[in-house]
Amino acid sequence: MSESRQSIHGEWSGRLAFILAATGSAVGLGNIWKFPYITGENGGGAFVLVYLLCVAAIGIPIMVAEIMLGRRGRSTPVNTMTRLAAEAGGSSAWKWLGWMGMLAGFLILSFYSVIGGWALAYVPALGSGAFAGQDAAFVGDQFASLLGSPLTLLAWHTLFMVLTMAVVARGVRGGLEKAVYVLMPGLFVLMLILVGYAMSMGHFARAVEFLFTPDFSKITGTGILIAMGHSFFTLSLGMGAIMIYGSYLPKRVSIARTTFIIAIADTTVALLAGLAIFPIVFSNGLEPGAGPGLVFETLPLAFAHMPGGTIVGTLFFVLLVFAAWTSSISLIEPAVTWLVEKRGMTRIKACLFLGMSAWLLGVGTVLSFNEWSEIKLFGKTFFDSLDFLTTNILLPLGGLLIAIFAGWVLPRQICRDELEMKEQLGFRIWLFLIRYVTPVAIFCVFLNVVGLI
Ligand code: PHE
Q1: Closest Cα to residue 237, out of 83, 116, 391, 56?
Q2: Which of 286, 312, 311, 309 is nearest to 298 (CA)?
Q3: pLDDT, tens digit, for every residue of 192-241?
Q4: Which residues pair with residue 380 across a beta bridge?
Q5: Cα(110) to centroid of ligand 1, in Å?
Q6: Nearest-CA neighbor of 389 among 211, 225, 194?
Q7: What is the tens place of the pLDDT at every residue in 341-354?
Q8: What is the residue with the minimal CA distance to atom 11 of ligand 1?
Q9: Domain 2-449, architecture per CATH
């Protein structure tokens, strides 16, 4: 039956298009903005090690499962889960997994767009040459004055949201497939240039040590939760983005092989970002735990001093914007397709409605960096709370449910069919990970955080 199933929203032109779109979704602010700063805040090497373990043992099996469910269901995540639950004889309550994912994507987009706006703001700031030759204090002041101005932040947030919705409204295949093709390799090359520059700064060895020498005394239960949450965030897992992209995937593309490529590309970009940023942190006496501003206070400093820095810097932020853009569109795709399928809205109307709502919620994040910076819930600002709730709770919970569904509810035969695998070793390893390792690991981390173990 599923052989003839097609998504009403279209299909990727082929394997490469899917790899690029899914990599575009995965590689984003999470790799370049978030990974370095949460690594800095959580003590470095031990955190990186836990993160890498999570990508390998939890992220990769779940990505395989999510693509598999998407391609089998060929629909928006809520309908995919309803269909597959019926096919497997499971409860119709599984559709709530789709709902939770849509909510998580919507909430993440609201703050993602604000940070995407920071990246946008840095394009003209670097392009004007204002940073050339400046020191750490100047770069820090620039960033502080951006954050201190709600109206400026709001303007950039608006522009980023408009850009996102403009692409989603057109359907993903049109411009995006082609754009990622050039932009992703471009970003990769620029990251290498930055790492090359960082190597010449004299503190490269210290940065390598910071990133790769685990000091387990620095890791806490919350640190482990953050590393695990980040492995979901960075791979775009647990909320239906990869599921919906999988629903556009043609038959006969190997899901397992494709997943490895995406995960390796994503992890490489994050590690390169760390290797570019920490030498600059150490050689300028900056704080590794400086928080969300870390990237915006370190990289412009490198651009200020390297030959051709104005051009390289401008280009870098352009590419960062593109990386964020190709991620943000996938955050809202599940909700857009739901409105189209269930409510019969046009894509354009669905985008307008969701874009405006997410924009409005984003105002809370804008204000949390200035007017509301003192307003805290459990010691967290509005932005921190949203980030924590989505990344560390909703995404891992979504991942846990995906693992349980794929491993225990969906008949093994369907998994084998969809993954085009026989009972070979690879399949058995995947099944073992998805049935036992992944759910138990996520569950234990949750228990640990609430203090039960
Ligand atoms: N993976 C994206 C990043 O690292 C963020 C994202 C999360 C996108 C979840 C889609 C879904 O920036």
Answers
A1: 391
A2: 286
A3: 999 998 898 889 999 999 999 999 999 999 999 999 999 999 999 999 99
A4: 377
A5: 13
A6: 225
A7: 999 999 999 999 99
A8: 236
A9: Up-down Bundle (1.20)
Ligand 1 pocket residues where CB is under 6 Å: 25-26, 28-31, 108, 233-234, 236, 239, 241, 327, 330-331
Please check the confidence at residue 321 and state whether its pLDDT lies above 70: yes
Q: How far is CA 407 from CA 68, 81, 82, 182, 392, in A?
A: 12, 14, 17, 37, 22
Question: Which value, to the nearest 10 degrees, does the dihedral of the CA atoms of residues 305, 311, 316, 318 take?
Answer: 140
Query: Mean pLDDT for the chain?
Result: 93
Confidence grade of residue 16 (pLDDT, cut at 50, 70, 90): confident
Residues in the chain: 453
Backbone region of residue 132 per phi and psi (left: phi > 0; alpha: psi in -120 to 50; beta: other values): beta
* Amino acid in the structure at residue 151: L
Q: Where are the domains of the chain?
A: 2-449
If one counts every other C-beta atom within 10 angstroms of the C-beta of residue 124, the result is 11
CB of 309 closer than 8 Å to CB of 100 = no
Rg (the chain; Cα; Å): 21
Exposure string of 220-238, with b = 16+ CB inside 10 Å and e = fewer, is: eeebbbbbbbbbbbbbbbb
CA of 101 to the centre of ligand 1 (A): 13
d(CA 291, CA 39): 10
Give the distance (Å) from ligand 1 centre to CA of residue 386: 14
Dihedral in degrees, nearest 10, Cα atoms 244, 245, 248, 253: -130
